[in-house]
Amino acid sequence: MQVSFNLATDIEAALLAAAKAAGLDAQAFSPDVRTADPRHGDFQANGVLAFAKREKQNPRAVAEKLVAAIDPTTRERYAVSIAGPGFINFAAQPSTLLEWLRTYGSESGLQHGAAAGYAGQTWVVDYSSPNTAKQMHVGHLRSAVIGEAICRLLAFSGAKVIRDNHLGDWGTQFGKLIYGFKRWANPAALEHDPIEELERLYRLGNDATPEGSAALEEARQELVKLQSGDPENAALWRKFTEASQRAFDQIYSRLGIRFDHYLGESFYNDKLDRVYRELTELRIAEESKGALVVFHDEVPRFSRNAERPNPFMVRKADGASGYASTDLATALYRTEHFKADGIVVVTDFRQGDHFEQLFLTVEKWFKATGRRLPKLNHVTFGAVLGENGKPLKTRDGGTIKLKDLLDEAEERALAVVRAKNAERPEADRFSDEECRSIARVVGIGSVQYADLSQNRSSDYIFSWDKMLSLEGNTAPYLLYAVARIRSIFRRGGLGDPSDTSSWETTATPPATPTECALARKLAKFPDALALATSTLRPHFLGTYLYELAGDFSGFYNADKVIVDDPAERARRVLLCARTLQVLETGLHLLGLRTLQRM
Ligand code: ARG
Fold first, then answer.
1. How far apart are CA 71 and CA 73, in angstroms?
2. Of 26, 61, 92, which marks where a domain is finished?
3. Do 255 and 181 fall into the same domain?
4. pLDDT at res. 38
5. CA quadruple 380, 386, 390, 391: dihedral positive or negative?
6. pTM, to two decimals
7. What is the pLDDT confidence band of residue 227, given thresholds at 50, 70 and 90?
């Protein structure tokens, strides 16, 4: 029997079998296996306590009975001990660790192991989703970066992932933009930097149409024309959308993002009537002051009796659709058309109320129609702050364009790479071209990782110095760890680190304390992956990678790799190769690129 990808699964299965063999009520027993404090072993089963309490038995005695009934293979693989009132500790034997290292040796091997988690499930991930005819600014960074990492985590764990960019491409702003466009468009500027020009035209349109003015009425008429399919306005709108998408795609390609769909708000125009009809017929929505709304009386904030009632606005009083209308149609489309088992929407926390109301409404609606309800997840994040603790702005208080931010990241990384390069022996230096291409990976990776290494729920402080530092939990530190292991292979003439078959045969189980610590950490990769994926929180994987790099340093400082004894050398080379594999796989899952040399 092969060791399973996540050792905790083996232990859980062994405990369930032991419960049966020992004559315990196996139905009522859940092993509850968790990662243990490393001083006590690798995993700890806590389930005996709850079980014994329920069954009114002595937990220690139950634990002893269970442990005695554990099958021989498991007893060979783990040192099993009972601690405290009835916790059962499992420490993987060095031979088990070696077996794991042999079994899960490549990116595809790791993926194969992970794929059981979400096999057969379809997940739609809605992320980035900016509004068209505007620049992406620093506020758009987190959704793109976190969303992409979540897509990769889910896909690696076996899900079919559909990346959907829910563009904000509809709404009242287009009336003013068309109004401005028809009067002041500058063809040369449109050619040169379309988004810049569209922003300028919107500002002009907005300034020219104050509340109550005749001009505002004209702008409204432009919107009505657009919405009723006027060919001229529809063509303009398409032009805006296409130009926006081209500009967005430049950013996405730098961040390694490719969407499967751009189903923006406008896509749902012809799907709204059905939403109004169903919600009305089912009496989930009701008329209130001319609008069609949903109250959720079980949630005080959203109830009709709230101090300031704030119902979910399915259709506005003037008959127009809004953000809620399109999101209802979107949920339906993702369920029916994509057959989604899970839906993830990534936006900042300020949209919390909207999504809470949306999900409550969808739950009631789908229940009433007997539709299968996908798992609905609103993945939120905090703000990006400057070093003064206030929202990040340019020096003169303007918003920072995402493009400029990424340019600056690459420039600053180039300075770091050049400085490091100057320290190398002359014969070993990179050309300027090489420095630039390394700096692109380091610069963009630093921005991505600064975001992903933090619990997404918190705000984070954007600090160039910190994110570009070669020390600490940063992209340069991790990318450097990868490059360093590659150089160990190159300098040692150890061959291709992805071809380890001969090392695997010769290697003996890890023996020194630092070898064992590193091997244990490697075998915990599945745990970190599962945690990051199930909670939709990539930082759990980041923290793990950082710790792994630390364990590698500990090992590399203590244990010489190129030693005479072939078995000892083979197991150390194998540990190097696997660390490289897991670091690279993990960084790719977070959306970073990695380097051969740095
Ligand atoms: N366009 C929205 C914004 O810029 C985000 C859309 C998120 N997705 C959704 N289905 N509502 O805030």
1. 6
2. 92
3. yes
4. 80
5. negative
6. 0.96
7. confident
